[in-house]
Structures are given as structure tokens and as C-alpha cells.
């Protein structure tokens, strides 16, 4: 490879195809402004290109954390785990005191194994995968401790950082 082709590599698709060699732009007359929007320079379609992911919150690397299995966005610190003995829609689930990088849908009433609750589905802000739900309101006094807490299903989480 020449130095010029290395400089003109298409970085958005580098992970998919190793980087495209982009032809240089035609010269502009002195004093001319660059075009407002440069033409697409990659041979991959915009749907195929990898978009950079920016998470709202990053958890410290020194802590044991849980991340989204689909996009690796941080979800929770191990210290926020309340219980591992919950059942989600698709298997085992964990109850957390607080989570990060999740969005919340509208609340609705559901009859769960432990009674009637008002819950809102939660989803990963990065990849939009539904992860579990947030307990908005518990109607039985023995279940009030769940209010404001989050359920994340194990099938949507991966453990990271120091779980040896």
C-alpha cells in the first residue's frame, strides 16, 4: 500500500472490509469553498456501515459490571444487584437497584407471578433491544420493595471486568 492509499482509507467500514481505498477529490480553484456535503466515498451501503456507538454512561473499568450482550453497552454495576432469583419472560432475570444506558417505555399493569404490578419495559439505549422492565408500582404491600427497581433478563446480559 502507498502512503496516499493509507491516508484515504474509508474508516467507517474498516472493520468490515479492511478499509476502502478512496479516490482523491478533484482539485478546487484557489479560494473555493469545499462542497457543503461531500459525496459518499465508501462502497458499502449506509445500512451496512458500522456506526460509532456512544453510550450515555460508562461504568468504571475497575468494577464488575453487566453489559448488553448485543452491543456491550454498560448496564449496571454488580454492587447494584439486589437479587438473582427472579423470573423474566424468557428465563432467569436479575433485580437491580439502578441501571444505566436504558430507556423506559410506557407503564402498564401486568399480572406477574407475584401479583399485579404497574411495569414499564426497558430497552438498551444503544441497540434498542428490550432487556426487561422497571417496577413502577406494586399493588400488594409485600411487593412494595420492588418499586423503582429494574429487572434485566440474563439472556440479554454479559458479565464484564474482573469476574475471574
Automatic annotation (TrEMBL):
Domain Yippee: 64-161
Gene Ontology molecular function terms on file: metal ion binding
UniProt keyword Nuclease present: no
InterPro entries found in the cross-reference section: Yippee (IPR034751), Yippee/Mis18/Cereblon (IPR004910), Yippee_fam (IPR039058)
Keywords: Metal-binding, Zinc
Isomerase as UniProt keyword: no
Family membership: Belongs to the yippee family.
Listed name of the protein: Protein yippee-like
Biological source species: Chauna torquata
